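WARN retry 2 of 3 for item q-0093 after timeout on previous attempt; input resubmitted unchanged.
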Amino acid sequence: MKKKILIFVLLPVFALALTGCKSIQEKAAEKAWERGAGNSMDIDIKEGGEQMTFKDKETGDKVSVGQNKVPSDWPKDVPLYKGEIVMSMQIGEGMSLNIKSDDDSTEIKEWYKKELIKLDWVEGSVIEAKEVWRGSFTKDGDVFSVTISSSEDDDGSIISLTYSKKTQ
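OK item q-0093 returned
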């Protein structure tokens, strides 16, 4: 009986020791990815699964997905409207944010147009529909787009921001 209890106590310890710094969850996700996609992926899970980074071991390409956080390297000349960050993602040199604001979409649209012009962004294409506005802006080869739509619950707006750094 004591041997069985000892095995059940030590088994998790050995499992953690064998995985090194990687969590069991990360190792399992990497193995599942390799079986499904066929390539080798390094998966880093932080903050209880709210922040995940996927890095292709062969190419070095990286995708980071998280919530409620602006990427630390978000460009200083790309303004952020006030509101709650509900999603963030980073793919290579590109970044994307979704912001939930209590403000009206027209107010947000006018703010972005004014702020981006002040920061020397050049307005490109604009698409406007009944409840959605999308503007594309360029600066020194970088591209920034803003999509503003009325929230589904008719209480404020959703702002989707996408930034792509000029490829060299």
